[in-house]
Amino acid sequence: MAVPFVATPLVPLFDLPGHMGRFHIEADGGRSLYLHRWWDFHWALIGNLGVDLLVVPLSHGLGIEQATRIVVAAIPVLTAAGFLFVARERHGTLPPTAALALPLALGYPFQFGFVNFALAMAMAFLAFGLWLRLERLGQTRLRFALFLVIAPIVWIAHVFGWAVLCILCFAAALHEAVETRQSLLAVPGRIALRCLPLCIPILIMLLWRSGLQAETQGFFDMRAKLGWLLSALRDHWKGLDGDSVEALLAFAVIGVAGFMRVDRVLGLATLLLGIVYLALPGTLVGLIYADMRLAPYLIAMTLLSFSPRRWMPHWLNGTMAAVALLFVLMRLTATTISSYHHAEDIRTHLAAIDHMPRGARVYSLVAPPCERGWDGPRLDHFPSLAIVRRDAFTNDQWTAEGAQLVRVRLPIPADYASTPSQIVRLDGCARPEPLLSERIATFPRDQFDMVWLINVPARARPTVPWLTLLWADTDDALYAIDRPSQP
Question: Which of 16, 42, 19 is CA-nearest to residue 29?
Fold first, then answer.
């Protein structure tokens, strides 16, 4: 599962360079002559720190880029392990079709670079597997004690992963309460007692999110939800990615129709996740693409709930296992090729960083392709690599109150200081972002030293007297901002 990121010069996920810039700020500890001037950072307890807490200590020996590669490459490994752990605990052995779920560990949320979320989801499935194992062994007291610690750890990695863990464990507790034939009045109390150790993060959240004003919108957009399901393996090739998901969904329909046996606990967990998926808005308390994030894991849980029926002959089970393995190998091959392609594309844009002086304040402008396709250059947060390599200031960091710990020290208006201020459109592009020419004309140039244009062809670049070209190639350009000489 880590193979797609072993042979590439860097891990090419959409948002990952932005995270790497934050890791560099966090790991600096005041040693840089520049970072503490540009950024304000103080550690605090929030539900969005999973990869940060792993990369920062590793980076002191390995550097930010290598530490990030190791941690991020481990996420699909842990996710796949969690999938298989859950399936084995409930079915007693690995069903021949369990491998079909593994490529979903490399699904669209992971490709998008939601690394803290993806790590928390991996931890949630591993923790759920442990929950099921301890229940099978009758170690309920030990489970209670362990999950007093495990639940806050998953929450710290990312709050979404903790919420999914609660749903999965609730499904198991509900099934256990019903199976023991408890009276209807006793069932709620029994479930509450079983799930009590999962509730510690609620106390933290009451303080963490108190007074937070964040956007929640996009309820019941069923067209978008269907689109996110069909995009669960979105990566590079629309036909291959779309057909792969459709094949999984077709198998899920056949399985639910009676061809496969459905485990009651995992089936109930799938049902609850499906209800949550339908109810989730597109943006939840500032968390963008909330429903998109859940889509691959909903499909994975559906597939993990299946096992062969007893009447199925051995050769048929072997055939299903072989097909599932071939599907995994095909998806890993496609993801490896895609990762190498995107990493090489990103590497061609790194040359401008070599021409930046250390500690430069860089106003970065990235122009995505005019046509919104299935795939495209993964450059939205590419400017943050200048933070990692040059201790620079760039305007693409996340600074949302309550969700991030990094703040901008410079007196720059918010519209020009942080993401999405780095995204622009070119003349003639039907996109919602501001025009490149408007951004060049209005940004506070007294607060910056340089302008960095990324994915902007020569014909679209500005010609203003106070910009001096320092370096350029066919796609990018780096300018120094000229200022009047001071007495």
Answer: 42
